[in-house]
Amino acid sequence: RAKNAGRNAAAAFTPELRAINLRRVEIETRLRPALERGELELHFQPIHTIAGELCGFEALSRWPLAGRGLVPPSEFIPVAEATGLLSTLTDWALDTGLAALARWRALRPDLDLTLSVNIAPTRGTTTYLQQAIASALARHHIPAHALCLEITESALIVDDAPARHFFMALRDLGVRLSIDDFGTGYSSFAYLTQLPVDEVKIDQTFISALADRTASATVVASIVGLAHQLGLQALAEGVETAEQLAAVRRLGCDLVQGYLLGRPMPAQEVDRLIGREAFADAD
Ligand code: C2E
Ligand code: MG
Ligand code: MG
Ligand code: MG
């Protein structure tokens, strides 16, 4: 009987699993032509100092797929990685993002706006990335310090020699380096002391749990304390409520990002936002 029940349960899941597989195959076959035709969009989420000043944006990829709406990066980045398309995608994100940043920096030279781009290090791409980044910066006349590269903590589970080499190579360009989703991966606090990093992005799971008076406040305080001792900036990601903003301010975070302060938006919306801010300041 138990065996039968198991088989029935498995059968019930089959159509769902098939749908997931079909979707994955569809994404695999349509991603390359979409990238080649320039159909991906880059959205930008504002980053503010804890004092409330706009200081930069994180570039986040979006894929409007006919008949499927917006495919989230969680679905197509792994496919890009598995099918060797990630460097094409990264090139595109760097070029598109830095072109927009050049415009915004010219519009608001007083803000020294930065752009954060997500980078997924894969084996053997260090030299390639170094060249791609240097040439994108030169092409758009952007000073290196205005570009921040975000590397997800979980991508560092390679043994530390290559990770260190990778970070050093990028650091040589003069760009800023950030560890994304900090606290969720496998790298220890000690590990952080060995990498030339400028910023840690405290994962939003810790931020969203802050309101519940859980141990999260202790975790955030520890991360901020460590970051500051190492001379790094601490950014709180996924700030959604005024309570969370108050908490991360109290806990000493330097930078904030989240729906409360702005959702990821198309470049034209940033144009309007920046124009409005410039206008407001001129009043
Ligand atoms: P991430 O770099 O940690 O980006 C933050 C994610 O949290 C984004 O999801 C953003 O839209 C979302 N988010 C921001 N504020 C809030 C908030 O207040 N509440 C909630 N619930 N969510 C918030 P998104 O855009 O779906 O991106 C997911 C991940 O995909 C990113 O995580 C990043 O790791 C990856 N990704 C996105 N674009 C690219 C890309 O161009 N290249 C690479 N390699 N990875 C990318
Ligand atoms: Mg990120
Ligand atoms: Mg993150
Ligand atoms: Mg995240």
Describe this structure as you would to a colleague:
Helix 1 packs across helix 2 and helix 3 runs parallel beside helix 4. With 283 residues, the protein is α/β, with parallel strands linked by helices. The longest helix has 35 residues, at 2-36. The model has no long low-confidence stretch (mean pLDDT 88). Strand 6 (176-182), helix 6 and strand 7 (199-202) form a beta-alpha-beta unit. The chain starts with a helix and ends with a helix. The chain is 50% helix and 19% strand. The radius of gyration is 20 Å and the shape is globular. It has an eight-stranded mixed barrel with strand order 1-2-4-5-6-7-8-9. It binds ligand C2E and magnesium ion (MG) (3 copies). One magnesium ion is lined by residues 181, 204. Ligand C2E binds next to strand 2, helix 2, strand 4, strand 5 and strand 6. Residues 24-278 form the EAL domain.
- Ligands: ligand C2E, magnesium ion
User: So what's the overall shape?
Assistant: globular
Strand order of the largest sheet: 1-2-4-5-6-7-8-9
List low-confidence stretches.
Answer: none
Number of helices: 10
**End-to-end distance:** 77 Å
Percent of residues in β-strands: 15-25%
Q: What is the C-alpha radius of gyration, as a whole number of Å? A: 20 Å
**Can you summarize the main beta sheet?**
8 strands, mixed, barrel
Order of helices and strands: HEEEHHEHEHEHEHHEHEEH
**Content-based structural category:** alpha/beta
State the helical fraction: 40-55%
Number of strands: 10
Overall pLDDT level: 88
